[in-house]
Amino acid sequence: MFAAITTTATGARSLILVCQALPATLWLPETVASTVDLPADLAVKTYSGSLKAVVAQLWPAQTGFIFALASGAVVRLIAPLLTDKATDPAVVVVDDAGQFAISLCGGHQGGGDRLTQRISQLLAATPVITSAAQQQQLPGIDVLGEPFGWQRGTGNWTGVASAIARGEAIQVIQEAGTTLWQQHLPAHHPFQFGWPEVPTPASKTAVSPQARVWISPIQRRFDVEATMPKVQWHPRVLWVGLGCERGTSQALMERAIADTLRLRHLALAAVAGIATLDLKADETGLLALCQAHHWPLKCFTANELRSVPVPHPSPVVEQAVGTPSVAEAAAIRAAMAIAPPSTSAGDCPVKTAENCLCITKKVIREVGEPGAVTVAVAEANGEYTGRPGQLSLVGTGPGSLDQITPAAKDALSQADAIIGYSLYVDLIRPLLRPGQIVEGWPITQEQQRAERAIALAQWGLTVAVISSGDCGIYAMAGLVLETLQAQGWDGQTPTVTSYPGISALQAAAARVGAPLMHDFCAISLSDLLTPWPVIEKRLAAAAAADFVIALYNPKSQKRTEQIAIAQQLILQHRSAETPAALVRSAYRPDESIIVTTLGDLLDHPIDMLTTVIIGNRSTQLYANQLITPRGYRL
Ligand code: SAH
């Protein structure tokens, strides 16, 4: 929940767009609300009296505040309410004119830096972000694991962040979870991975680390007196296999799990979920336990469990429920069901059904508590993110950054991962933020790109698949949806949202006047995916029907004949004088524009970066502009 607060009419006008996009509730003094034209669908609240009291009242429940106020006033308003950076909400200040967006506090864990980036994109404002990690193009150490659902453990977070800010070397010991983040760091980052090898003359001269980051299911206790600051992230890799008698209380299960983990120094925060026998799917205490911890409950049939080899099979259990093991077998099955979509930590061996059980079963009873619990714990190769995945199909327009919609920019800055053809990824690089997983792919391999994006989204990430122009026009959107369809997608997981972009035909048309003012069509001359006879048929039909024609993919190094055939087919229905345009790399630094005629089309260079526009029978050429009459002046 976001609150956008201002005391002036100009401030309100700056915040309207932000409120609609986030969405956020707009807070205004009663006296100002009546002076501003507010959209009907906007959530608006008015107040009279002290703003300080309003902010204090809103403070505990909001994820973020956006103030259009002087920053000094905001500092005074929030100063008494701040507690610590782990719990404070994001606070962003926008100046009255909407030129700057300042991340004031709650920058990392409160999400203030990201919110600031979003807002500045929405308002075309300059983001002012002062955190050191941002300057170094690094993900904040206290938000590093958020995309993967890792839980922040104990440690001296400020100490480690300060060491990073000072540019000191940081040791990272990663014993679990994806190492994807390591592959997307800037070239000069401060992290040293793993333990140093046996000292060699070279390693002796290496900079010695001044702070340590653990990424592990193990809960380490750090000496508060130690000079080296340390922190720990806990990827959710542990599956607790649980069996219980009917009517066992939630409290007993809770203590049994906590005690079992503590004995082996495993973090409760590293628990991914609970696994059990399907007969227990309605066990009240178990359901309450899972709900309280946001743990998924994985239920297996006796048949699924009986085939799992376990260290402690029990004939008694087998007789009662049809499988010799519940806790151990369910833990192993749940852990083995998680296949990480990307490389996992190199510091620990791959888990198999034979070695993933890290705690064998224990039966726990307590005097005075009804019931009994059996607990076993297995470690998976990949983490459970606990996040619903999202796919954003983003059109990044013809080339320059100012031709991308604010909504598309917003989707890019929100994404955990960006996937696209490397040329297009490079074009939007200035819009990306530190810590994003950015995968530029070769021009072919569209199917692999789609599969990769889907796999990351199914794992829980927010993934932006980018295409130039519009994502749904000769681009990735269709392929992603077809691939989802082939996988039996339920329409919801992951969610899919499209962000339209300016397509090449619009961009090219805008550069040469108004050729698309009457009925038009797009035809791709690439016969890679469409048989050539089909393309010829469409060209002839479009020419006969007098459509203005935009030709995509007109010519490549290997495919040179098609454009000549297209010209001949169209010439059968239109005069050689018909105005035409060749627009190459529209809105990119190497843009070139040639206005010509259908007859002279081939006298000019044409390649894969060109869109060809051919006018209809009434298209005129005037002052180097193609004008297709709509009919107003006839
Ligand atoms: N999804 C894209 C089209 C991809 S097909 C869109 O909606 O624009 C690739 C073809 O698009 C190229 O061969 C070229 O014909 C055209 N194209 C893409 N970007 C262009 C640009 N900036 N200028 C001119 N043509 C472009």
UniProtKB/TrEMBL annotation:
Keywords linked to the UniProt accession: Cobalamin biosynthesis, Methyltransferase, S-adenosyl-L-methionine, Transferase
Group of enzyme by EC: transferase
One GO biological process term: methylation
Cited InterPro entries: 4pyrrol_Mease, 4pyrrol_Methylase_sf, 4pyrrole_Mease_sub1, 4pyrrole_Mease_sub2, CbiG_mid, CbiG_N, Cbl_synth_CobJ/CibH_dom, CobE/GbiG_C
Pathway assignment: Cofactor biosynthesis; adenosylcobalamin biosynthesis
Molecular function GO terms recorded: precorrin-3B C17-methyltransferase activity
Domain Cobalamin synthesis G N-terminal: 54-133
EC number: 2.1.1.131
Residue ranges constituting the Cobalamin biosynthesis central region domain according to the UniProt record: 139-235
Domain (Tetrapyrrole methylase): residue spans on this chain: 391-601
Domain called CobE/GbiG C-terminal: residue spans: 238-378
Identification of the protein by name: Precorrin-3B C(17)-methyltransferase
